[in-house]
Every structure is written in structure tokens, then in C-alpha cells.
Design a protein that fits this description.
The chain has 6 helices and 18 strands. With 355 residues, the chain is α+β, with helices and mostly antiparallel strands. The protein folds into 2 domains: 11-170, 3-Layer(aba) Sandwich (Glutaredoxin), CATH 3.40.30.10; 173-352, no CATH class. An 8-stranded mixed β-sheet has the order 1-8-7-4-5-6-2-3, with helices on one face.
Length: 355
């Protein structure tokens, strides 16, 4: 059995469970000619969302499209829900992850029988000589490549070459995501469109994203006696943002991450509004703002208890050119605030949901 936390037994008896919100039952023995992947989850488990989504898209759909593993063994992912309260939240989880075959593991009986100690919990089973053997068990998530490697070994001819093993472990996947959102009110219109390319190679994930944003503000200055230079204005700006992030799993518990990004344009509508205010208030001394910036981030995450506890340290450096503020005091020249900022940040994050 392959596992970072080998708590599961070597084999298990077959089980029968009801489908989520249904009286229809599904038996493990229905899949005795192939490989079964058990995905234990609960709606409140944040890491489970990624695991369930990847197991559905990159295992269930992947092997369905190939008519099984390399030996022709069919592959079935069974998503086992261990939380029976708040069915509406579970329905939302299923809809978001796309899990296609969800069973209710009432009171976590199957989960406990397999030595469950945390979720996400992924187990790979194969029926050999009439017995369901546990080929892989891991509390946490080592990535889809590890699971595929175990699946592909079922029914494979002996003597697979190291080159074949390397090809499996370094299989690559590409994903593209595009999203848009906006905010509209009586005097503000904001839009943002982001395209992200996710490239996974072995234990390393690369994310490249580009965002195009628009900011439109109706500037309505306050009226004051004997102040005639202020006027209403419709102010519009665009912002472009490019980001590259890298995440690499050193071990099942240690993950290294880094990123760098840059932007050109106003970061928010408040800065745009203030820039227009100072432009009209002090036209003689105002300097046109050209906001832009860049940042670099590096960090290390240690998940010392799978899915329940971690410690993470991050360092970030940020440089920004911002829209300056202005101040005019009687009998003194116009004072202009800082326009260049350099920021160094160290963040230590600790989380333990059990304590």
C-alpha cells in the first residue's frame, strides 16, 4: 500500500451506501472489474473543494474518455459525504465541484473503517482475487499525478521502465479560467475581467493571469461660496495587471510558493476621485498621476496536520507609484505628499481548526 499516512487496512469488505438525497443504493462490488477512488469530503472542508473538483475532472472524466487505465481497467470515483447536516450546503458543494456520483457515508462508517483521520482523504481500491485491496491511502492531497500513477499500475505488465514511471509522474495539465465582475451605482462604474492559465507539471503549478479593469467616477464637488473653479466631471481610467505565481510541493507536508506581479493604473475608485479633487483644487501645482507598481512574494507552508493545521511564513516586497496628496497652508507654498512607496512585509500565519 502506498501512503504518506498508512492508517488504512490492507483490504476492506465491500459496502453498500445510498446516493445523496436518494433511496437508490450503490455497492462497491458493482465496480469489481476496475479501480475505485474514494473521495471522502464534507461541505465545510475548504481543501476538499479542490480535491473533489480535480478527481472529477482529471480522474473520472480523464479515464472515462480513455475507456479506462492503460490496462483497460475502468475507473470510478465515489465521492463519500461524511456530513449529513445542512444538505443545502452539500448540494452547493456538489454543484461547484461537479462530483458525479455522491454517496452518503452515514456516521462515517466507511471512513472510520478505513482509518480516516482527516479530510480530504483519498483512497484507491482494486478488486484482486475477490478481495478489495487498498492500493493507496492518504489524508490530505498529494496531487492528481500521484493518484494516476497508482491507477495506471493496476493490471500493468511487470517490469515497467523508470522512463515510464517518470512520464506518469511528470504528466502535465492545462486549465484556462475566465471571469468577469462589475459594480455599478449612481456615480461609480467598475468592471474587471481576468483570464488565468494554470499549468501543472508533476508537483509544480504555474498560474499566469492578466486582468483588465475600468474605473468610471462621476465627480461632483461640494459647492462653496466664492469658489468658482470646481466643476463636475466624468473621470475614466483603465488598469492592466499581470501576475505569475508558482507553487511547488517539496513533500506532502511542505509547499513552497512564490509570485511576482505588476500593474499600471489606479488601484481603486477612491484614488481616482481624490486625484480629480486635487487636480481641480490646486491646478497650478498639481502633477498628473501615473500610478503603477510591482511586487515579489515568497513563502513556505508546513501542513503539520493534514487539512486541519498549518504554519506558513511569507515575505513580500512591494513598490508603488501612487497619486500624491496635497496640502496648502496660509502663506506657505503648496506641499505635495509622497508618490513613491516601498513596502517590506513578513507574515506568519498559524491555523489549527481543532484547537
Amino acid at each position: 500500500m502506498t501512503s504518506a499516512l498508512a492508517q488504512a487496512p490492507a483490504s476492506i469488505p465491500p459496502f453498500t451506501l445510498k446516493k445523496f438525497e436518494s433511496e437508490e443504493t450503490v455497492s462497491l462490488d458493482q465496480f469489481d472489474d476496475g479501480v475505485v477512488v474514494l473521495d471522502f469530503f464534507a461541505y465545510w472542508c475548504v481543501p476538499c473543494r479542490k480535491v473533489s473538483t480535480e478527481l472529477e475532472e482529471l480522474v473520472q472524466q480523464f479515464y472515462s474518455g480513455k475507456n479506462g487505465n492503460p490496462a483497460g481497467k475502468p475507473v470510478q470515483v465515489l465521492s463519500l459525504n461524511i456530513e449529513q447536516s445542512r444538505a443545502a450546503r452539500t448540494r452547493q458543494f456538489i454543484r461547484q465541484t461537479g462530483a458525479s456520483l455522491v454517496l452518503d457515508d452515514v456516521y462515517g462508517r466507511v471512513y472510520k473503517a478505513l482509518g480516516g483521520r482527516g479530510i480530504p482523504n483519498v483512497i484507491v481500491l482494486a478488486n484482486e482475487s475477490g478481495q478489495w485491496n487498498v492500493l493507496y491511502a492518504h489524508a490530505g492531497y498529494e496531487g492528481v499525478d500521484k493518484i494516476r500513477q497508482v491507477i495506471d499500475s493496476v493490471g500493468a505488465a511487470a517490469g515497467r521502465s523508470p522512463a515510464d514511471e517518470l512520464a506518469v509522474s511528470l504528466s502535465a495539465t492545462h486549465t484556462v479560467e475566465i471571469g468577469s465582475d462589475g459594480l455599478w451605482s449612481s456615480d461609480i462604474l467598475l468592471t474587471d475581467t481576468t483570464a488565468t492559465h494554470i499549468y501543472t507539471l508533476g508537483k509544480t503549478e504555474f498560474r499566469t493571469s492578466y486582468s483588465f479593469s475600468t474605473l468610471e467616477v462621476d465627480y461632483n464637488p461640494a459647492e462653496e461660496a466664492f469658489v468658482f473653479w470646481r466643476e463636475q466631471a466624468n473621470v475614466t481610467e483603465e488598469r492592466h495587471t499581470l501576475q505569475e505565481s508558482i507553487q511547488h510541493s517539496l513533500t506532502p507536508a511542505l509547499t513552497m510558493n512564490g509570485s511576482f506581479s505588476g500593474y499600471d493604473g489606479f488601484q481603486d475608485y477612491r484614488s481616482l476621485w481624490l486625484n480629480e479633487f486635487y487636480r481641480q483644487e490646486y491646478p497650478a501645482g498639481h502633477k498628473e498621476a501615473k500610478p503603477r507598481g510591482a511586487n515579489i512574494n515568497a513563502g513556505l507552508r508546513w501542513e503539520y496536520a493534514p487539512t486541519t493545521a498549518f504554519a506558513q511564513v511569507d515575505y513580500a516586497w512591494q513598490t508603488d507609484t501612487i497619486a500624491s496628496g496635497y496640502e496648502k497652508k496660509p502663506f506657505l507654498p503648496l506641499a505635495r505628499g509622497r508618490s513613491e512607496l516601498d513596502t517590506h512585509t513578513v507574515i506568519l500565519t498559524l491555523e489549527n481548526i481543532l484547537t
